[in-house]
What we know:
41% of the residues lie in helices and 10% in strands. The protein is α+β, with helices and mostly antiparallel strands. The chain has 2 domains: 2-51, no CATH class; 63-183, no CATH class. The protein has a 5-stranded antiparallel β-sheet with strand order 4-1-2-3-5. α1 (55-65) packs antiparallel against α4 (122-135). The longest helix has 17 residues, at 140-156. It is globular, with a radius of gyration of 17 Å. The protein starts with a strand and ends with a helix. Mean pLDDT is 81; it is low at 156-174 and 176-184.
Amino acid sequence: LSIKSPAGTLFAYINPKQQRVWEVSEYISSNQPWIISLADDSAANQLDVKTATNLVQWLWDLASTHGQKFEGLLDSHINYHIASWVKPTHDADQHDHLKIQCVLEARSLTIDDLVARSQCSLPQVKKTLIGLFVAGALPASVYQQTIAQLNSKTISQPVTQSMSSLEISLPKMSPAQMTVAEST
Length: 184
């Protein structure tokens, strides 16, 4: 698969089966829509696994870097729990990301409860949850609850600015699983 801008600029290649991504562009825009399609050039067939990045890790890094754009996906009434761990980037937030994942491994918690248990700030908890959400590291039940919450919001409430900046279409499975399903 390839990720391109609407203008046709190639950002990256993705191989969902191998859970790998190859960044082609040094700058991947998060301010415009992406077009994900079957890779139709010979360069996609020449990709070396040794130069690839783990897809889950790449999604985590992308979402935790641009977390504010995904805040509309979080809901204070949902209990969050971790299904798999993601290795945080070695930066100033690494310790807090790991602490939050430890707390989520032990129990399901709302965002407010997670702030209290982890003793991390609300923005840090949201940043970590968004990274885990987009990376597919949460159980299917969290994604299903999120879909239900978003559906009820779109029916009964106006779309917020944070929601309108994204095209929200959530799978009942992890992002990697959905990518595989769409490519078959």
